[in-house]
């Protein structure tokens, strides 16, 4: 395959180049490659990115196929420009053993769209009582471990998990939330919660666990990754920790750098997400954290739900936003077009850094590298229409929102898996 005339997003620049792909690898990046390909793509006027990697999604299978399954999630991923996704362990049964990891890897091969990397649970059944079989899960194909959705409450057990993970060169991805401080809250604790008459979740519920995980990582000289950062104070702690040499990395999501908690005043249950969308001070801190490198990755925390899970009173609705088909558009519109990040910086946050943190093959367009590629028209405008999502989860509160950045091709190992 030859991709011609594209504006190729390289590690530190954007250059008009041709790309020659053979046997799933990039073999040449050059001007006017003379060879004839079995397949040629004219990318004139478009941008060629390293295949996007989402290191935080929920594919719901096994157990919750009514919300999403591996096939529908993979179809949504490639439509959104993602060549690799990492799926969280809060399924049924929980991904806490090699059998479930092996099942997900088998389904990945059956579906044959994007690469799917399971993330194992830190504890058995995500109960926070006993460590799961981390070594056997890694051997079966798990790329990390996480307490996603249910923070490990016992600090000693979290310490042991970090030590054990360090020994097996696998990272802990930490969902930072003190349930006692959440205390039944459903939105950010602030003016909008008061106006809406909804119980709030204070920043401290997130921050006290961020502080704990940073402290443990520093004590053990271990690596730790903080999931879906939403508070200004969390950004500040992570920045200070990095400056002090703590091995901490962190991620955030489009809804935290784009919106504020004012959107909950509509009582649209699709705005209910965990952690909650917070205030302007938090949004600005997250944008600054993306800009200065405090926040390493942009993820979706894609959390698809069946309509029944959201079509109830706000207090009883499930937490989560279905966002894998809109993430790239938000990055182009609110980060690149807004002058917050350059295109190579967006590629870092959405491809290179996730690959580096998790030790995945990919994340960069380079000769000899894997041919995972996303081609997009950055000037094409489109409107979010959740009812047309490929994902089973239509729970996205941004219906009617206009975005730039339309994905045209998603190429995995040199094969076109999505074409607009």
> Main sheet?
8 strands, mixed
Give the overall silhouette. globular
Number of strands: 18
Q: What is the domain tally?
A: 1
Account of the 3D structure:
The structure is a single chain. The strands form three sheets. Strands 1, 2, 3, 4, 5, 16, 17 and 18 form an eight-stranded mixed β-sheet that branches. An eight-stranded parallel β-sheet has the order 6-7-8-9-10-13-14-15. α2 runs parallel beside α3 (about 135-140) and α4 (about 155-165) packs across α7 (about 205-220). The protein has 13 helices and 18 strands. The chain has a single domain (about 50-365), classed as TIM Barrel (Alpha-Beta Barrel). By secondary structure, the protein is of the alpha/beta class.
Concise structural overview:
With 420 residues, the chain is an alpha/beta fold.
Task: Map the helices and strands.
Layout: E1 2-9, E2 14-22, E3 25-30, E4 40-42, E5 47-50, E6 52-57, H1 70-79, E7 82-87, H2 98-111, E8 115-121, H3 134-140, E9 144-146, H4 155-167, E10 171-174, H5 179-182, E11 187-188, H6 191-196, E12 200-201, H7 204-220, E13 224-226, H8 232-243, E14 248-252, H9 254-258, H10 280-292, E15 297-298, H11 307-310, H12 327-336, H13 343-358, E16 373-383, E17 402-412, E18 415-419
Parallel strand pairs: 1-4, 1-5, 6-7, 7-8, 8-9, 9-10, 10-13, 11-12, 13-14, 14-15
Antiparallel strand pairs: 1-2, 2-3, 5-16, 16-17, 17-18
Helix pairs in contact: 2-3, 4-7, 7-8, 8-10
């Amino acid at each position: 395959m030859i991709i011609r005339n594209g504006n190729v997003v390289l590690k530190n620049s954007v250059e008009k180049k041709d790309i020659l792909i053979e046997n799933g690898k990039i073999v040449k990046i050059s001007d006017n490659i003379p060879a004839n390909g079995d397949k040629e793509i004219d990318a004139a006027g478009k941008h060629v990115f390293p295949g996007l990697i989402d290191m935080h999604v929920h594919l719901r299978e096994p157990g919750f196929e009514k919300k999403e399954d591996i096939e529908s999630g993979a179809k949504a991923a490639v439509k959104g420009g993602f060549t690799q996704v990492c799926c969280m362990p809060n399924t049924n049964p929980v991904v806490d053993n090699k059998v479930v990891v092996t099942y997900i890897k088998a389904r990945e091969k059956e579906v044959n769209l994007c690469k799917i990397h399971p993330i194992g649970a830190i504890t058995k059944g995500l109960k926070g009582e006993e460590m799961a079989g981390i070594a056997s899960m890694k051997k079966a194909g798990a790329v990390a471990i996480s307490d996603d959705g249910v923070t490990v409450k016992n600090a000693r057990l979290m310490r042991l998990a970090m030590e054990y993970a360090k020994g097996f060169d696998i990272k802990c991805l930490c969902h930072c939330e003190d349930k006692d401080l959440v205390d039944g809250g459903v939105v950010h604790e602030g003016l909008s919660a008061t106006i809406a008459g909804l119980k709030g979740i204070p920043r401290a519920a997130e921050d006290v666990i961020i502080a704990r995980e940073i402290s443990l990582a520093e004590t053990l000289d271990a690596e730790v990754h903080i999931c879906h950062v939403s508070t200004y104070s969390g950004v500040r702690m992570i920045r200070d920790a990095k400056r002090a040499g703590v091995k901490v990395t962190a991620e955030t999501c489009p809804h935290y750098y784009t919106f504020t908690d004012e959107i909950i005043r509509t009582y649209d249950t699709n705005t209910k997400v965990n952690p909650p969308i917070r205030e302007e001070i938090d949004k600005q801190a997250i944008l600054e954290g993306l800009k200065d490198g405090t926040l390493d990755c942009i993820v979706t925390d894609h959390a698809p739900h069946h309509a029944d899970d959201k079509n109830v009173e706000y207090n009883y609705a499930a937490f989560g936003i279905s966002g894998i088909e809109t993430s790239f558009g938000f990055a182009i519109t609110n980060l690149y077009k807004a002058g917050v990040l350059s295109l190579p910086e967006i590629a870092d946050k959405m491809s290179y850094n996730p690959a580096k943190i998790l030790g995945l093959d990919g994340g960069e367009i380079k000769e000899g590298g894997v041919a995972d590629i996303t081609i997009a028209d950055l000037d094409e405008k489109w409107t979010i229409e959740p009812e047309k999502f490929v994902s089973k989860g239509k729970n996205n509160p941004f219906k009617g929102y206009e975005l730039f950045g339309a994905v045209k091709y998603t190429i995995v190992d040199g094969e076109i898996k999505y074409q607009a």
